[in-house]
Amino acid sequence: MSQSLTDLPLVTVQKTEKKSQESYRVYIETFGCQMNEYDTELVRSLLKSRGFGFTDHGEQADVVLLNTCAIRENAHNRVYAHLADYKALRSQRGLVIGVLGCMAQNLKKDLFDSQSMIDVLVGPDAYRRLPDLLLQAIEARTRGLAVDLSEYETYEEILPVRGGGVNAWIAVMRGCDNFCTFCVVPYTRGRERSRNPQGILIEAQQLAEQGYKQITLLGQNVNSYRYQDWDFAKLLLSVAEVPGIERVRFTSPHPKDFPPALLDAVAEHPKVCNHIHLPAQSGNDRILQLMGRCYSRKEYLELVEAIRRRGDIALSTDIICGFCSETEEEYQDTIRLMQEVEFQSAFIFKYSERKNTIAGRKHPDDVPESIKSERVGRLIEWQRDVSARKNQALIGQSVKVLVEGDAKKSKNQWMGHTESNTTVVWNKADRLVKPGDLVSITVEDGSASTLYGSPTSS
Ligand code: 5AD
Ligand code: SF4
Asked: Residue 185 C-alpha to ligand 1 middle, in angstroms?
């Protein structure tokens, strides 16, 4: 939202008579990860099947839903800021406000009781109850809360309402049983459960028929995927065989149990992209143990070696700086790990203590904010240089790019990604090119985040 809603002209909707559900327009804002984006698509489907309509403008909506994230404190803060924006509209014209997702699940009744402008609060396993709760809130002005976690809910038969384009995401499993000590996900998304592969394959076929070209399989820890005799590698290879799908990706695997068959799939199947996102979190053994990651620095580096031996597979990672009691020396081990691996890209975060997590209960959050920020800054700078150097090393080479759409900055340029997930931008020259095509681009320049080039002349 670029504009505060309280700055917008006041729209007064007289609700003198009961409206039909179709006339209730819902606006959904999504925060957080790809799994949350996927859940928003599920929620759209559940609401659509009950007759709700949608709008892309919060100021025109009867219902505003915030699908929230809880992973770091700043994710919470963003939601509080948005809630404050909508508060005036609620009192002026009876807007119904719903908070969904991980923050709803994490804070539950505390959030519901402390924020009286929230009409409906629903956690990630309770979305089937959302339509009824919303209708009650709209028509009877009752407030409702549904935050039960489930060991079974996979929304198996719900077909997400997707936004179109070339890329689609499919959640293959939900929840997480790893309990990394810093992480709130096991508490917000509950126990691990895998979807039936048949349903996933049918969804992939339907996506191909609708023109989607790239599928990303999602799970909090995809290598834990199990359904009878299906493991994740088997599922990935089967999705890669769906006619019409050109590229398959997945996120995220856990380094502690990366199966050889999954590496084979990445290295050998032409449609499984040669990119692995492998969250390291830290390069220091004491910190890794304190984080409950179940691998050592040496084991992580051995896995990287094994991946590198299989060919040109890009690696990216997640790093947390300033975890409980992390010393400068221990942080230096993370720098050295990053220097050794030279990731294609990295997401680098300040540790943010989360309520209820093991670290939150057992280990003091004792690294000062200023030191956390400084450590993050140093790593971001290092990574930016590595990414730029890697991208510039591609100058003169031809890369295969999936055309996704207009570039952000200009409608006269196309934007797409390489197999290793680097953004590529080039001038539109060939009229026959369209989103969904795989094209060859000769790289002419590279920044830390983007490759620039032109169509390879054949
Ligand atoms: N503080 C900071 N970063 C976190 N992540 C997860 N929990 C926290 C936390 N409490 C990061 C991890 C994870 C990514 C999705 O978010 O690096 O891999
Ligand atoms: Fe996604 Fe985790 Fe944030 Fe939930 S808490 S939205 S699972 S990143």
From this structure: 9
Ordered by where they begin, the domains of the chain are 25-146 (3.40.50.12160), 164-273 (3.30.750.210), 398-455 (2.40.50.140)
Decide whether any atom of ligand 1 lies within 6 Å of the 147 Cβ. Answer: no
Between CA 63 and CA 72, with CA 67 as vertex, the angle to 5 degrees is 145
Q: Ligand 1 center to residue 182 CA distance, Å?
A: 7
Ligand nearest to the CA of 67: 2
> Does the beta carbon of 221 sit less than 6 angstroms from any atom of ligand 1?
no
Give the ligand at the shortest distance from the Cα of 39.
2
d(CA 262, CA 242): 18
Atom of ligand 1 nearest to the CA of 353: 10
184 Cα to the center of ligand 2, angstroms:
8
Q: Could you list the pLDDT tens digit for every one of the 458 residues in the chain?
A: 333 333 333 333 334 345 555 579 999 999 999 999 999 999 999 999 999 999 999 989 999 999 999 999 999 999 999 999 999 889 888 999 999 999 999 999 999 999 999 999 999 999 999 999 999 999 999 999 999 999 999 999 999 999 999 999 999 999 999 999 999 999 999 999 999 999 999 999 999 999 999 999 999 999 999 999 999 999 999 999 999 999 999 999 999 989 999 999 999 999 999 999 999 999 999 999 999 999 999 999 999 999 999 999 999 999 999 999 999 999 999 999 999 999 999 999 999 999 889 999 999 999 999 999 999 999 999 999 999 999 999 999 999 999 999 999 999 999 999 999 999 999 998 778 999 999 999 999 999 999 999 999 87
Q: In this structure, are residues 50 and 127 in contact, taking their beta carbons and an 8 Å threshold?
A: no
Smallest-distance ligand from the CA of 186? 2
Using CA positions, which residue lies closest to atom 14 of ligand 1? 318
